[in-house]
Amino acid sequence: MKVKITRLNDEYSDLPLPKYATGGSAGMDVYAAVDQPMVIESGKIALVPTSLAIALEPGYECQVRARSGLALKNGIFPLNAPGTIDSDYRGEVKIILANFNPEPFEINRGDRIAQLVIASYEHIEWSLVDDLEETDRGEGGFGSTGI
Q: In 3D, which of 92, 82, 88, 73 has the Cα closest to residue 33?
């Protein structure tokens, strides 16, 4: 599948396009397009630019997901995860990052800040009914099946 992508600012043409780290990767690393270091203080949220825009075909979305190393080692997570970039959005792909670490975290030009996963979806129509069929689980949720 080919997806159209454009750079919004030639100043960042040295940064790689999103790419898979290995042949079996589901997500493509995306890179920070910042001129100066960006510091996310502990407990704070930042919107990190990529200087990229994409054009997906209808029926596809681009999901923004955490990089496991950033999450485990630094407590840095994308919020609204997985975030969704809709097929009709043509603005800059920006990554919402939160710092759950007690220390400030610095993002530099070209740092890998998240993963992008392209996924298909379907539009549905609701069918309003009076009752739903019973299941073994029923209304159990929020830990009702144990740890």
A: 92
> In what order do the strands lie in the sheet containing 45-49?
45-49, 94-99, 76-78
* Strand-pair partners of 114: 30
Rounded to whole angstroms, the Cα distance separating 100 from 126 reads: 38
Kindly list the distances between the CA atom of residue 50 and the CA atoms of 13, 29, 92, 115, in Å, as whole numbers in the listed order: 11, 11, 7, 12
The 10 Å CB-count burial string (b at 16+, else e) for 65-75 is bbbeebeeebe
* pTM: predicted TM-score of the whole model, two decimal places: 0.88
Task: Tell me which DSSP letter residue 69 carries.
Answer: H
pLDDT digits (tens, 9 = 90+) for 48-60: 999 999 999 999 9
